[in-house]
Amino acid sequence: MLPELKMKPLLLILALVGLSIATSVDLQSDLGALLASKARASDAIDAVLGLLGDLKRSSLHEQQTLEQRNRTQEGEGTRTVAQYSDMLNKNEKQYQDAINHREYIEKEMQDTENHITWIETRLEEIQRKLDELAVQRCQANSLFVQALKEHSDALKSLKFVANELKRLQGSGELTEIKSLTQKFLRYENLFEKEVVTKFISLGKGEEGAASAAEGEKAEASKPAPSGAAGQILQMLSNLEQSLRSSMRSLEEHEIQAAYDYAEFKSQSEIENTTLREDMERKHKYLAKLEVDIEVAREYEDKCRGIRDDSSRALDAAQADLDARRAFYAQEATRIREEQATLDEIINIFHAKVASMQVQLRDRVDSGKKGSVLLEESSNEEASTDDPPEDQDDS
Question: pLDDT tens, 249-262?
């Protein structure tokens, strides 16, 4: 609408110019009319030039107003966009911090659950080890008691064999040594194989010596040699010491094993107590984290909403700024086009005015020449009709 409204005064100006020109053309015959037409044309030209000047000044004022408004709106819009952009960056950072906090809590929950699972597994492992050791200790204790009984029975047998051997050696009846050897062999598993073999060989040698002594009893009354019996008694004494040493070793090992079991059990109970206390703390911490994760998720949703609102506000501010820029560009183009049109009309008008002035000047000049000729003609006629003064005087 604005370009159309601005063109109506221009059309009116052209009409006025045409009217003034037409008026000047109709009044050709009368010099006074031509002079009056020239005066009216000059007034019309001044009016038209004033109107064109007003239009040009109005257009320039509109352009200045538009540019001033654009500078103001551009500055305000740019600041608004910058403010919303900073706000969006802050809200984006806040939202990212909320995400990181929520992920941290989730990781803490997972780590806590894994630690609780590890504690439960460790407690089960300790209990299983204690149960296994308890069974092993029961079996080991049973074997220990059995070994003590065997050692005790072996000691009794050694004492019995030694006593019998001494009795037989004193009475000279060494033929029963084989049965004594058999009695000893019941516990051969408690002694080294070499010791058992030597003991058997000594027993056989003593029995042979005893038989030879009985065969020669009638010829000589001296006692049978007792070297092998002495060796057997010495060996029995050594075996007794070995058995007692073995019993002490069994007892020491059993005591050490029992002590180790008791120590492991005590340490396990301490570890169990520590683990249960730790698990209780972890359960409390996990319960706290379950509350924290709900709060963190709500806060994250809130931050996301704030971030989205900031983003929409920034988009709206940017869209408003872009619309104002587009409007300014459109209006600036329109004003430039109107000013170009005005300049073109003014140039055309000046050209028409110049042409019209030339025509009017020519017509006025022609009218003046006609008037001079007419006056001269009238003067000549007057001089012909009236007698000369010299003739009258004469």
Answer: 888 988 998 899 89
The residue ranking higher by pLDDT, 195 or 346, is 346
Q: And the tokens for 37?
A: 């037409």
Helix axes 193-215, 177-185, angle to 10 degrees: 170
Q: Exposure string (b/e) for 359-376, b if CB count within 10 Å is 16 or more?
A: ebeebeeebeeeeeeeee
Can you tell me the distance from the alpha carbon of 30 to that of 12, in angstroms, rounded to the nearest whole number?
A: 28
Name which of 275, 268, 266, 184 is nearest 233 in CA terms: 184
Tokens of 265: 């059990």
Look at 361 and 143; give whichever has higher pLDDT. Answer: 143
Phi-psi region of 152 (alpha: psi -120 to 50; beta: other; left: phi over 0): alpha
Q: How far apart are the C-alpha atoms of 372 and 378, rounded to whole Å?
A: 10
Checking if the pLDDT of 188 tops 50, the result is yes
> Tokens standing for 294?
């709900």
pLDDT digits (tens, 9 = 90+) for 21-54: 544 444 344 555 655 666 666 777 777 778 888 8
How many CA atoms lie within 13 Å of 210's alpha carbon, on the beta-carbon side? Answer: 20
pLDDT bracket for residue 242 (50, 70, 90): confident
CB atoms inside a 10 Å sphere around CB 179: 12
- What would the pLDDT profile of 130-169 be if each residue is shown by its tens digit? 999 999 889 988 888 888 888 787 787 777 777 777 776 6
How many whole angstroms separate alpha carbon 259 and alpha carbon 252? 10
Which helix (H) or strand (E) segment holds residue 185: the answer is helix 177-185
Structure tokens at 99: 């995400």
List Cβ neighbours of 139 (8 Å cut-off, separation of 6 or more): none
Decide: 91 and 314 in contact? Cβ < 8 Å.
Answer: no
Burial of 67 (0-12, 13-18, 19+ CB in 10 A): middle
Secondary structure class of 386 (helix, strand, coil): coil
> Which residue is associated with the tokens 């966009």?
81
Residue 40 contacts residue 23 (beta carbons within 8 Å):
yes
| Alpha-helical regions (H) of the chain | 2-26, 31-171, 177-185, 193-215, 227-385, 389-393
